[in-house]
């Protein structure tokens, strides 16, 4: 998730890990981590910083 703070890095991670991230169980894991970050957004600074990028990432997944 932290790579979402640097879009170029996030794009590279997505390309390099596509064979793993495109699996159904990986999608479940990504959605779980995104929900945890959003739940903690009002409690921790790093989650607050990630909330916006995570929301945008969820839009690209079609999981708004």
Rg estimate, integer Å: 12 Å
**Major beta sheet summary:** none
- By secondary-structure content and strand pairing, the structural class works out as mainly alpha
Overall pLDDT: 93
* Gross geometry: globular
User: Alpha-carbon distance between the termini?
Assistant: 17 Å
Write the element-wise H/E pattern from the N-terminal end onward: HHHH
Low-confidence stretches: none
| Helix proportion range | over 70%
Q: Please tally the helical runs, counting DSSP H or I stretches of 4 or more residues.
A: 4
Counting DSSP E segments of at least 2 residues, the number of strands comes to: 0
- The fraction of residues in strands falls at under 5%
What's a quick, concise take on this entry?
Helices cover 73% and strands 0% of the residues. It has helices at residues 7-16, 18-21, 24-39, 45-61. The protein starts with 6 loop residues before the first helix and ends with a helix.
Describe it for me?
α3 (24-39) runs antiparallel to α4 (45-61). The longest helix is centred in the C-terminal third of the chain and has 17 residues, at 45-61. This protein has helices spanning 7-16, 18-21, 24-39, 45-61. The chain starts with 6 loop residues before the first helix and ends with a helix. The protein is mainly α and 64 residues long.
SSE diagram, text form:
Elements: H1 7-16, H2 18-21, H3 24-39, H4 45-61
Core attributes:
4 helices, 64 residues, mainly alpha
């Amino acid at each position: 998730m932290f790579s979402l703070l640097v879009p170029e890095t996030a794009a590279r991670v997505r390309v390099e890990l596509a064979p793993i991230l495109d699996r159904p169980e990986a999608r479940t894991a990504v959605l779980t981590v995104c929900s945890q970050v959003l739940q903690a957004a009002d409690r921790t600074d790093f989650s607050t910083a990630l909330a916006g990028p995570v929301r945008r990432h969820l839009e690209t997944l079609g999981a708004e």
